[in-house]
Design goal:
Number of strands of chain B: 18
Distance between the termini of chain B: 17 Å
Oligomer: heterodimer
Radius of gyration of chain B: 22 Å
Order of helices and strands of chain A: HHHHHHHHEHHEHHEHEHEHEHHEHEH
Largest sheet of chain A: 4 strands, parallel
Strand order of the largest sheet of chain A: 2-1-3-4
Number of helices of chain A: 19
CATH class of one domain in chain B: Alpha Beta
Largest interface: A-B, 35 and 46 residues
CATH class of the largest domain in chain A: Alpha Beta
Number of strands of chain A: 8
Bound molecules: flavin-adenine dinucleotide, iron/sulfur cluster
CATH superfamily of one domain in chain B: FAD-linked oxidase, cap domain/gating helix
Chain lengths: 398, 460
Amino acid sequence: MRIEEYAEMIYACGRCEFCRGFDFNERCPEIFTQKWESSTARGRMLIARALLEGKLEYTEDLAERIFGCFLCARCKEECKKAAQIDIVEITKAMRADFVDHGVKIPEAGNEMASLAMEKGNIFGDSPAFHAKWAEGLEFKKGSGILFYPGCLASHRFKEKTRILVQLLQAAGYDLDFLGDEQTCCGTPLWITGNMAEAKKMVSAQLKKMQNRGVKVIITPCPSCFRAFDEEYPRILGVEKLPIKVRHTSEVLEEIVEKKKIKLKHKVKKRVTYHDPCEIGRYRDIYEPPRKVLNAIPGLEFVEMSRKEAESFCCGGGGGVKLMYPDYSRAVSRERLTDVLATGSEIVATICPACEMNLTHATYEADAAIRVLDVAELMAVSAGLVDEEILDPYYIPDD
Amino acid sequence: MANVGKITKLLVKVVGSDRVSDKHFDLIPYGRDLSPAKEKLPTHVVMPKSREEIQGILKIANMHDVPIYIRGGGTSHWDAFLAQEPGIMLDLSFLNAIVEINERDLTATVQPNCTWAKLDFELRKQGLTYLCSEAGGPAMTIGGSVMKGGGGPHGTAKFGFHGNQDIITLEMVLPNGEVVETGSAAWPSAGKFKRQCLGPDLAGLFIGAEGILGICTELTLRIRPATDFKERLLATMDSLDKVIEFGHFINRHVGDEYLQGAYLWVDPSAPDVFLLMMDVFGYEKEIIEHRKERVIEKVKELGGVFGDSEPANGYFDGILTGLTDIFATGVWHFFGSGSLRIDDIGVIYKIWREELIEKRGYTKAGFGGNFLPRDWLAFMVTNYKEPEESEMIMKLADEINELVLSGPVVPYGIGGREGLRPIVEARNTGYYRLLKVIKKAVDPKNILQRGIFIPKEELL
Ligand SMILES: Cc1cc2nc3c(=O)[nH]c(=O)nc-3n(C[C@H](O)[C@H](O)[C@H](O)COP(=O)(O)OP(=O)(O)OC[C@H]3O[C@@H](n4cnc5c(N)ncnc54)[C@H](O)[C@@H]3O)c2cc1C
Ligand code: SF4
Ligand code: SF4
């Protein structure tokens, strides 16, 4: 069992319940949606202990408790005070154990993983369709700086992705793009426990990039960012990849700090910011997007009550969006209440998955709130796109 | 034992299928508490949303002779909610509403599984706070705290344990399903504003009973205005006698005590260094300043030395959000704990030092205590590794508990067969015999918390 590697941590849980928080909707989106004690991190550590001790087996009906976790790391953050347990890694190991033991996992999880492997993206798009967002943009093959949008930004957010590229290019980054050759980073494999093919896939991906002379990857997707920066080295058993991986939050901050672009137009909007779990709690990237927003003239920045390390998940994490869509929707609705409480007209974030979930929540609630990437606000201020995109009822050209 | 499937079906009829489970993986998380007590699994978990549903569950339990175990936040550590025998775990998580905050009467009415953290979060929006609580962190519930008659470092140096000043009325569902209210709420047309009025104080019967006499479904608490001023101090002293003198000093003015929190800690690596963390009480800056000065003068007079107050801030601020580094070197066990007179603290200290450290060579447990008005809540606590050290720790703790409770110390937190129950049972005091009579009268089938506080056999 893969969880054996984590036995020491599993036994280190002292059952303080810090991870559960003070109410269902307060910190853990899994207890918020499933309500059972078995859906808390504390519950999971006891389940893992029973599995280790042979008192319990992986079964199909246990899957909801393990695959219904959003991998948002809020519990892990809390456990820093208590036992420093890496609940996310243990949950991923449990998922992999399900697959290794041939126990049925949610169908949508397997489908996502097979589409990613077979078609090269989680939507099953043809390569040409998947790269359609880039039509009309010019890239510099072999520049060494690879723009890697990832599945969601390619398929779902064509306009946002175009705007981001325009912004980066206007700031002087010579971007390369894999075009039809771009394939999924592999995240669907490790979040669904389908690890058998992972090493082969990761090696092929890396080889493709090295052959093209890639020195730096820039990606707007926190999952792709962490895939290249953390999972690839781990799977390949190396300390670091020979390629530098940058998330756009850091690049946008660099643009502001080095004044690579002039933010000349006022954006007279009240804006709040949603911290994506995978760059926030996972990587401590809290300040850069805030710095960018505060650098935009006219913009009134307000914080949500739950922010930074205590931010609540958007509902998009852990593959739950596909495997348990109702749970995902409930969580995004809850997060929207935080947004609405700020009285903001725009919620900015810097992750395509968060953008999608929050956008769905605003549609469902018919809330007059626009969900934008930080880059889009910068692009408006830089005069690269019309300010009509700020309008809550604007329909993007996707 | 009743048929598990049959009981599941009956419970489903009361609460619906989405709030009952008999799945092994849903039961496992209820099998352990914060102590090294052995795993004890219930047969069912059920999550009621109303007192009527609780009544329905009690009816099934009585009819089929199935014990019910009550879980609040599940953060306690003396085998106090674990299923001592196969039975239903009543998880009260859904009963967590704040019913009313009455800022004129300074009362808050809550459902039992409202957490202290949730209540305080809402109270603070109105410039209010609560009187006292333990340091159990975000998930600790008001019902759990009060039903065990707890006390800890917050507010207790001034207001004492739960039940001393903070409980006004209780709503309890008795084992036979009958609902009773205490205090002024016992007179239905009166309302919830006073603890001691009609006849004997029945709230006192339930506070500290660890759920054996009834399930608490609502509480009205005394609240108070919050203050904008925080003044924490940290000092060390070089003898316990001086700490004792200091204890008398801070709460000599009965009802007008200087501190709301006073926490003593002695690390096993430095058994002659007595660290005190203090939280000065007062509403106005001038009063706080005055008290602070008086405390500083006294500590200095006793030869104490002040240090950086930051750890004291971290400690008192972490009571509801979660103390830090608690399991850094292993999970926790509290033992050798109890209430005792201010002058008697040396008794537990001596046992800690001589019996635990010197005689048994166990050097990983610290010694601590909270000052209360006119007494102490003292304890020993250790980090240890599960599972390999669990049995050794339990054995050690049992020996120390015996020694401590043979002295001038009242047990704190009774719990089940791996808690302090065996010691309490062996003493078989008049008090205990009366409790058994009351238990038999209100719970003839011994449905609630069977085996907790009182062994099953004693009630046959
Ligand atoms: C970090 C940390 C610090 C702690 N500090 C302290 C401290 O300073 N002092 C201290 O005393 N403890 C402390 N504890 C232990 C624990 O937090 C307290 O005992 C707390 O009061 C338990 O509350 P709970 O809601 O978790 O109750 P539970 O553990 O769920 O229950 C406690 C008891 O009450 C019963 N019960 C619960 N709800 C009801 C109800 N509605 N009706 C009837 N019976 C009920 C249970 O069956 C059980 O017997 C600490 C724990 C942690 C993790
Ligand atoms: S915070 Fe960590 S140690 Fe505490 S119950 Fe949760 S997982 Fe266990
Ligand atoms: S990772 Fe997030 S969803 Fe999963 S148990 Fe932790 S807090 Fe809950």
